[in-house]
Design goal:
alpha/beta, Metallo-beta-lactamase, Chain A, Nonspecific Lipid-transfer Protein, Chain A, 2 domains, 7-stranded mixed β-sheet, 12 helices, 24 strands
C-alpha cells in the first residue's frame, strides 16, 4: 500500500492500480490564509490530469472540503462525504460531480482493493475518522478529530494497527481570540493520548494534520500552534517504545507492507519549496500586537465593501442578533454594554457601542463604559460577511470577558457564525460559477 502526503490532512492511497484521495487540498494558501508548513506549490496541470478512483472527505470544514480544489478534478470522480447537512452535497453536485455519496458510520465502502469505513469521532455531528483496509493492512486516519471512547473500544480488536495517522497539533483558538485567558509556560500533550495510542499499538505513527501556519508576519505562528514535531516524536517514543514515528512532509510517499515501511517515489504534482523539516516555534509569553497594527497588513476595501461592513455594524448585526436565541446562562442575559472596534488598513478605528439585554440589542448613544469589547480588522470582518472566512483566521480579539463567560457568546461571533454552515464553500461556488460564465 502506497501512502503519500498531500497537505494538511490530505493523503493519496494507492494499491493494485487503485488510487484514493482523502481530504484533498491543492491550494497554498488554503482556507484563505493557511500557508503550507513546510512550503509547497502544486502543478495544477498534473492535478487536472489525475483520475482518482474515489475521493473521501471526512467533514465539512473548509480546510478539508474545498470546492476550489475539487473543481480541478474530473467530474466522473466519485465523492464520498461525511456530513449531516444536505446543502454541501448539493453544492458539490452543482459543481458538476454526478456521483456524490453520503458516508454512514461503520458502513464499509469498497473501491478496488480498498475498504474504507467512516468511524465515529468525538463530535459525530461534525467530523469522522477513516479506517482503511487493503492488502491485509489496517490504517487509521484520525484526520483532525478527537477519539470517541466507544470508537476506541471498537478499534482495539484490530490492534496492533499497521499505521495510525494521528492529529498531533492542538490549536489554541481561545488563547488567540482572548489573549488575557491564555495559559503561560510549556504545553503538555493531551492526557488522553497515551492510553489511546497504547490501545491501538500501531507499528508506525504519522504526525498528521495541521501542516500550516498563518501569514509570515502573523503573531499566531508563535501562539496558535503549541506542539512541535520533536515534542510529539519524543512523547510517542516514551509511550510506544516499539513504534516508529514517521514524518510525511507534503509529496513524501512510503510503501507500507506487513514486512515494514520503505520510501517510495514522491507525488510529482506536489512541489516542495525550500526547507522541509521545519518545526513550530511556540512562544507562550509573546505579546500580541495591537489590532490596529494587524489591520495595516491588509489591503484597503473598496468604498462599496466598506459601506457593506458599516451597514452590517449599524443594522445587519442587530437584526441577526435578535433573530437568534441566547442561551439562558449567557453573560449577555443580564444588561451590559458591548463595544465593537473596527480597524481599517491605516489603523484608524470606528467604534460602535450597543446596549444588550438577553435577545435585545440597540446602538447606544451613552457614555457608559463597555464591559465586553471586541476588535477586528475591517478587511477580516468583510471576509467573514462575504467570503465565508473562518473564525480562527479573522484576527478577532475579545477583552473584558469574565473568566467564566463563554467566548463564543460574543455577539460578533454569534452573528457571523451561528447560521453560517458551508459559507466558505458557498462563496467558492459563487466565484467558480462566475469564472465559468466569463469564460463562455
Amino acid at each position: 500500500m502506497k501512502i503519500s502526503r498531500i497537505l494538511h490532512a490530505g493523503y493519496a492511497f494507492e494499491s493494485d492500480g487503485t488510487q484514493i484521495l482523502f481530504d484533498p487540498v491543492f491550494e497554498n494558501p488554503f482556507s484563505r490564509n493557511c500557508h503550507a508548513f513546510p512550503d509547497v506549490r502544486f502543478d495544477l496541470h498534473q492535478v487536472r490530469a489525475l483520475r482518482p478512483d474515489a475521493v473521501f472527505i471526512s467533514h465539512f470544514h473548509d480546510d478539508h472540503c474545498s470546492l476550489e480544489s475539487l473543481d480541478l478534478l474530473d467530474r466522473a470522480t466519485p465523492i464520498y462525504l461525511y456530513c449531516l447537512f444536505d446543502q454541501l452535497f448539493a453544492m458539490i453536485r452543482e459543481l458538476g460531480f454526478g456521483n456524490v455519496q453520503p458516508l454512514a458510520l461503520d458502513v464499509p465502502v469498497r473501491v478496488g482493493g480498498f475498504e474504507v469505513i467512516a468511524r465515529r469521532a468525538l463530535e459525530a455531528d461534525v467530523d469522522s475518522m477513516f479506517h482503511i483496509r487493503a492488502e491485509g493492512l489496517n490504517v487509521l486516519n484520525v484526520v483532525d478529530s478527537w477519539m470517541d471512547p466507544e470508537t476506541l473500544e471498537q478499534l482495539k480488536p484490530d490492534a496492533p494497527w499497521d499505521m495510525v495517522l494521528w492529529p498531533f497539533q492542538t490549536m489554541r483558538e481561545v488563547d488567540v481570540i482572548a489573549p488575557s485567558r491564555a495559559e503561560r509556560g510549556p504545553v503538555a500533550l493531551p492526557e488522553e493520548w497515551p492510553e489511546q495510542l497504547q490501545a491501538l499499538a500501531p507499528r508506525y505513527v504519522v504526525p498528521s494534520s495541521c501542516q500550516f501556519r498563518q501569514e509570515p508576519w502573523s503573531w499566531y505562528n508563535h501562539a496558535l500552534f503549541p506542539i512541535t514535531y520533536r515534542q510529539f516524536a519524543q512523547a510517542v517514543g516514551e509511550w510506544l517504545p516499539a513504534a516508529q514515528v514517521v514524518r510525511l512532509n507534503p509529496s513524501v510517499s512510503v510503501e507500507l507492507s506487513a514486512a515494514g515501511l520503505t520510501p517510495s517515489s514522491p507525488l510529482p504534482w506536489v512541489l516542495p519549496v525550500g526547507e522541509q523539516d521545519v518545526d513550530y516555534d511556540y512562544q507562550p509569553d509573546s505579546v500580541p500586537p495591537p489590532t490596529a497594527d494587524i489591520a495595516r497588513h491588509f489591503a484597503p476595501l473598496t468604498a462599496e465593501q466598506t459601506a457593506q461592513v458599516l451597514d452590517f455594524c449599524r443594522n445587519g448585526l442587530l437584526a441577526r442578533y435578535e433573530e437568534m436565541e441566547l442561551p439562558e446562562d449567557s453573560y449577555f442575559a443580564t444588561p451590559c454594554v458591548w463595544q465593537l472596534s473596527v480597524y481599517d488598513h491605516a489603523g484608524a478605528v470606528q467604534q460602535f457601542r450597543y446596549q444588550i439585554h438577553g435577545d435585545s440589542i440597540a446602538l447606544s448613544d451613552g457614555d457608559e463604559a463597555p464591559t465586553w469589547s471586541t476588535e477586528i480588522p475591517i478587511a477580516k470582518l468583510y471576509a467573514g460577511l462575504a467570503l465565508g472566512e473562518s473564525l480562527t483566521s479573522m484576527y478577532m480579539r475579545i477583552a473584558g470577558a469574565p473568566a467564566d463567560a463563554d467566548i463564543v457568546d460574543d455577539p460578533l461571533i454569534r452573528t457571523l457564525f451561528d447560521d453560517a454552515f458551508a459559507a466558505y464553500q458557498a462563496a467558492q461556488l459563487k466565484r467558480i460559477k462566475a469564472r465559468a460564465q466569463q469564460a463562455e
